Amino acid sequence: MAVKIEKTFQVNEPVEKVWVFLSDPRKVGTCVPGAQITEQVDERTYKGAIKVKVGPSVTDYKGEVQIVRLDEQAHEIEILGKGQDVKGKGSASMKMTGKLRAVDGGTEVVSVSELNVIGILAQMGSRVINEVSNIMFEQFTKNFRQQLQNAETGGSETAAAPKPISAVGVAFSALKAAVTGHSGRAEAKPGPEGAKDSGTS
Amino acid sequence: MQKTSAEIGGMGHPIKRKEDGRFIQGKGNYVDDVNLPGMVYGHMVRSPYAHARLKSINTEAAKKLPGVLAIITGEDLAKANLAWMPTLSYDKQMVLATGKVLFQAQEVAFVVAEDRYTAADAAELVEVEYEELPVLVDPHKAMDADAPLLREDRTEKNNKIFHWEVGDKAATDKAFKEAAVVSKVYALSPRCHPAPLETCGCVADFNKATEKLTVWLTSQAPHAHRTVFALVGGIPEQNIRVISPDIGGGFGNKVPVYPGYVCAVVASLTLGVPVKWIETRSENLQSTGFARDYHMTAEVAADKDGKVKAMRVKTLADHGAFNAAAQPTKFPAGLFSICTGSYEFPQAFCEVDGVYTNKAPGGIAYRCSFRVTEAAYLIERVMDVLADDLKMDPVELRQKNFIPAAKFPYQSPLGWTYDSGDYHAAMKLALDTVGYDALLKEQAEKRKKGELMGIGISSFTEIVGAGPAHSFDILGIKMFDSAEIRVHPTGKAICRMGTKSQGQGHETTYAQIVAQELGIPAKDVQVEEGDTDTAPYGLGTYASRSTPTSGAATAMAARKIREKAKKIAAFLLEASEEDLEWEPGKFSVKGAPGKSKTIQEIAFAAYTNIPPGLEAGLEAVNYYDPPNLTFPFGTYIAVVDIDKGTGEIKVRRFVAVDDCGNIINPMIVEGQIHGGLTEGFAIAFMQEITYDESGNVQGGTFMDYLVPTAVETPHWETGKTTTPSPHHPFGAKGVGESPNVGSPAAFVNAVVDALSHLGVKHIDMPITPWKVWNILKEKGLTG
Amino acid sequence: MAKKELIKIKINGKDREAMAESRLLLVHFIREALGQTGTHVGCDTSNCGACTVIVNGKTVKSCTMFAVQADGADVMTVEGLVKDGALHPLQEGFKEEHGLQCGFCTPGMLMSTYALLQKNPQPSEDEIRWGISGNLCRCTGYQNIVKAVQYASKKMAQGGVK
Fold first, then answer.
1. Hey, are the CB atoms on B711 and C129 less than 8 Å from each other?
2. In this predicted complex, what is the ipTM?
3. For residue B522, what is the DSSP state?
4. Does domain A2-183+192-200 sit in CATH 3.30.530.20?
5. Which of C4, C43, C82 to mutate to test the interface with B (most CBs of B within 10 A)?
6. Least confident of A92-96, A182-186, B129-133
7. What is the mean pLDDT of chain B?
8. Quick check: is B14 in a domain?
9. Is the same domain home to B562 and B639?
10. Cβ separation C100–B20 shorter than 8 A
C-alpha cells in the first residue's frame, strides 16, 4: 500500500543549524516516535528499528536507513528507510526528501515521503495509514523542535529511550479522524514557534 | 404426475420445513458446536507477504508458552510428504509453506494449544523471517513472458495454467468478417467471496485405540473429502468417517479442502486427541475459495436488423496462487461455454486462459454452476451493448434472437444440448408484471426533466446438475449422485443421499419426493445427509446439482420400491400385477376400489407376510447418472433510479420470473430466489476483494467487504413459468443459483440504461455510488 | 495461564457461574463455559450480529463484550425463548414464513427481533428492516424474515403473549 505524505513546518532556528540536525540520521532518527538508530554501517548507511503499536498489535520493524542524496548547498536530503517486522508481520519502506528554506524568523522544512506498507497494517487501508502517519508526524515535529532547543541550550538530556508509539490512542484518533474527516490535533501545543502546519493529507 | 393431498405433501406443496425446529431453538449442531472430551485447538500462523522466500521459522518462544502442545511447520509436513496436497483441479497446493509464500494470509505454521486463546497467543510468538520477492497481482502482467515466475514447483517456467478453447474458430471469424454490425464489450467479473455466515472449520478426532479418524467438517461434499483425506493422508478409507453436521451456508466456499483441515487431522493423528480448528472471518475472506476474477471480452456479430450471427469470447481467468478451483476435470473453465445464452447463435468461439497471481487460491462456483454467472453476465451485457449500437429496444433484440420453444432440445454451437425452454413466455410474464410499456413512457418523460431512471433486462439460461459420467468427473470420480430409501414396518421411511444441504431444505424436499412417489406422508420420511459412514457415495451439493442428481436418484429408488410394493400388493390382494392401479399411497384392484392396500399395509407385510420368492424388507438404492444437464432459465427486470447529486442507486423494483421445471416446494423455491437475488445485488453493487500493488488484500474483513443488510436489500417480486425437463424423472431442473446467475446483468444493464443517453456504454461491477458520481461529474451533471 | 475470575450470571432465568480470564469474550463464555451453543460467531469485527444476545434488557453483540462485564447481569439467549414448552410467536413466525434457511443467523435475528417487538410491538416494514440491520443473513434476502416478524407482531397482539 503506497501512501504519499507531504508536510511542511517551521522552526525558529537558522537554516545552518537545522541542516546540521536534519542531515544526521542519528540525530533526526531520535525524533521519529518509537524509532532508534542502532549502528552506523558506513558513511551513508545506518541500522535502525521502529516499534509501532496499533491497538494490541505491535509491529517491530528492524532494517536499514540509507542517505541516498545529500546536497549541502541546496540543503536537501533524500533518505531511504526499509524495515521488516521481526515476527514476520510485514514490512515498510519509506523514501523521504527533506528540503530547508530560510524564511523570516527561521527555517521552513518541507518533507515529501512515499511510504509503502505490507502486512496487517496495510489491510486496514490507506485511510488508517494516512491518519497514523499524520499523528506520527505531529509527534515528530514536536520532538524535532524539542531536540533543536536542547542542542541550543546544550541540554545534556538525551532523548528519552524510544518508546513504541502507543497507537491505541493513535488508532482511536485515526478512526475518529477518518470518520469525522479531520485530524484530531489536540496535541499540537500553541508554542512560541507558532506551529504552522500547511501539510496536505 | 398426480398431485398428492396436502396431508401427504408431495410435489408442489409448500409444506413448512421439517428441519426448522432445531434451528429456531438454537439447537443446531454446527461444527463449532461439537465439543469432545480432551479437545484442543489449532490456530494458523499466516504470511503477511504476497510473495516472499521463507528463510526461517523460529518456534522456540511459542513452544514455551504454557498450554502449547505442538507447532507444525511445512518442514514437519514435508517429512510425511504432506507439505503439498492435490487440489480439485489437478494442481497442487501448499498445506504449510515450504521455500516460499505465494499470497498474503498463506498458511505458514499451525499451533495447537489447550484453548483457542492460548493458541492465538502462541501464534503471535512464532517468528518468521522472509525475503520479499516482486509481487504480481495483475493477471495480464502475469501472462507476460518476462513476468516473475511464481510457481517454481512446476516444470512450466511461466505463470500460465491452461488454455482452453471450444467452438469453430474459422467459421466464427468468417461470420464476423461478413457481419453488418459488430458490438464489443470488455467486462470484468470482479473477484468476490461467498462469505457464508459460518466460516470453515473442523474437529479432527483420531482414536488411537480404534485407529479410526472422525472428522466433523464444514463440507458440501463429505464423501469426496473423505476420499481426498484417504489419498493424501494414506489412511485406509474405511477408517475415515467424515460428518458434515449442520452447515451455516456454503455457496461453494465449503467445497475445497483447506490447509487447516489437513493440519488439524495431522495434529490429531500425532497427539491422539480431538483437534478443533475454526477459522476467523478475516481468514475466511483472505485465504479461502474466492469466486469470479474473470476478465472477459465478448464480441457479437449481427446483421443490420439485429439477428445475431456469431459470438467470439476471450477470457483471462485469475486463479490466484494455486488452481484450487472445484471444477469438472474436462472443463478448466467450468461451463463457461454456456455464454451463447438464450440466443440462436449459428456460430461461436470461446477461449479461456488461466493464470497464476499472488492472491488467494481458487476459484469456486459461488452460488452458481461452474463459471455460469460469468457467462450469463457476459452475454446479457453484450446483448445490451448490441441493442444500444443498433438503437434497438433490448427486449425486442432478445425476442428476435431467442431460441424458439419448438426448437428444443437445442444444440448450441459450443456443444451443449439444452433440454427444454420457453424464453418468450418467461419474458412476456416479466414484461407484463413490471408494466414495461408504462415504464418506458415514464423513462422518456424523466429524461426530458433530466432525471435518471433505468430499466435492465436479463434473460438468462443456466446449465446445472453436473453431470453425465461421459463428460463429468472431479479428480476422476464421476459426478453421479445417490439415494437410499428404507421403509420401516410401520410404514415410515428413512432416506440418505450423497448430497449435503447447507440451508437448501433437503430434509423437507427429498421427503416430498418420496411422498410423491410412494404416498408416504412427507412428515413420516426422515432424511439424512452428510455422514459418510451411512450415506451412499455422492459428490455433494453445489452448482444446483442436488435436485437434478440426488433428487432424480430418490425418485428412481422410490420407483424400485414401488415395483416391489406392487408385487406384495398383488400377493395380499390375490390379484395379478396387471390388474392393479396406483395412486399415491395405495394399490387398488381395477374396477374394485374397495379392494386396496395402502403403502403402510404393504410395508408391514414386507416384514410379516412376505410373498414366497421375495426377500423381506422394502428398500432400494439408486446411483443416478444424469443423461444430460438441465437448463433452468428466466427473465429478470430491474428498475433503478439514480440520485444525480450523490450517484446513489435505488432499486425501485425487481421482477424475477424463473423457470426451473417442476417444483417440489414453492415456498422453498421462493426463499432460494430471494437469497440468490440478494447475492446478485451485492455482487453488482458492493462485493469486491481487491489487492493493492504490493499484494495487500483490501476487503479482508466485514468492515471493508460489504455484504448487504436488510436496509439496502430491495423488495423482490417473483413469478414463474414451468417448462419441465424432458429427461429428469420428475421434470425438475434445480433452482438455488439461477437468481445469483441472472441478476447481476439485470442490475448493471439498468444502471447503464439510466446513463446511456449520456453516452455511457458499460460500467464494471461493483457499481458503487462513487463510480456513478464520477461519471456524472465527467458528464457535467454534478459538481 | 492468566488469572481467572468467577463470573456469576443469570442466563435464561437460571443462575450459573464459571471461571473466566478477563479477556474472555462473552460469546465464548456462553458457548463454552455455559454450554449454550445457540449463539454463534460469524465474524471478527462486530459486523454480523450472529452473536446477538440480550443483557439486562438490551441487545448486545456478545463478541464485543467481555464475560467479566456481564458479571451479575441478566442474560437472555435464543435458548430462553421457549416458555413452558411452547415456541415464542417469533419462533413460530420464522418457521411459518420460511424466515430461515441455513439457520446460522437465526438465533441473533430472534434476539434482535424479540427486543424490537418489546420496544415497538407494531413495527412497519422499514422499522423491521432497520431493527435487523445489525444482523447479516446470506441465505434469505431478509424478505421472509420481515414477514416472520409481522406474523409474530400480529400473533402477540392477539394472544397477549410477550
1. yes
2. 0.97
3. G
4. yes
5. C43
6. A182-186
7. 96
8. no
9. no
10. yes
Q: Which three cell numbers stand for residue A11?
A: 522552526
Residues B215 and B295 both lie in one domain: no
Which residues of chain C does B198 touch, with a Cβ-Cβ cutoff of 8 Å?
A: 40, 42, 102, 104
The owner of cell 488508532 is A171
Number of domains into which chain B is organized? 3
pLDDT at C86: 96
Does one domain contain both B618 and B632?
no
Please name the chains neighbouring B, where neighbouring means 3+ C-beta pairs under 8 angstroms. Answer: A, C
**Dihedral sign, CA of C137, C140, C146, C151?**
negative
Residue B704 contacts C, CB cutoff 8 Å = no
Confidence of residue A87 (pLDDT cuts 50, 70, 90): confident
**Which of B45, B103, B694, B698 to probe by mutation at the A interface, max A CB count within 10 Å?**
B694
CB pairs under 8 A between A and B: 58
Which residue segment(s) compose the domain that C143 sits in? 89-159
Task: Give kind and range of the element (H or E) at residue C111.
Answer: helix C106-119
**Residue tagged 484417504 (cell numbers):** B230
The tally of domains found in chain C comes to 2
Comparing A49-58, B292-301, B397-406, B540-549, which segment has the lowest mean pLDDT?
A49-58
- CB of B709 within 8 Å of a chain C CB? The answer is yes
**Are B605 and B638 contained in the same domain?**
no
Contacts of B108 in chain A (CB under 8 A): 88
For residue B421, which amino acid is it?
Answer: G
Residue B457 in 3-state DSSP?
strand
> B-chain residues within 8 Å CB-CB of C78?
25-26
Report, as an integer, the average pLDDT of B80-97.
94
Q: Are B690 and B46 in contact (CB under 8 A)?
A: no
Q: Report domain extents, chain A.
A: 2-183+192-200
Closest partner CB to A118 (pick from B127, B694, B700): B694
pTM metric for this prediction: 0.92
Q: C5: exposed, middle or buried (C-beta count within 10 Å: 0-12, 13-18, 19+)?
A: middle
- Report the C-alpha gap between B363 and B360 in whole angstroms: 9
- Tell which of C53, C80, C107 closes a domain: C80
Look at B382 and A162; give whichever has higher pLDDT.
Answer: B382
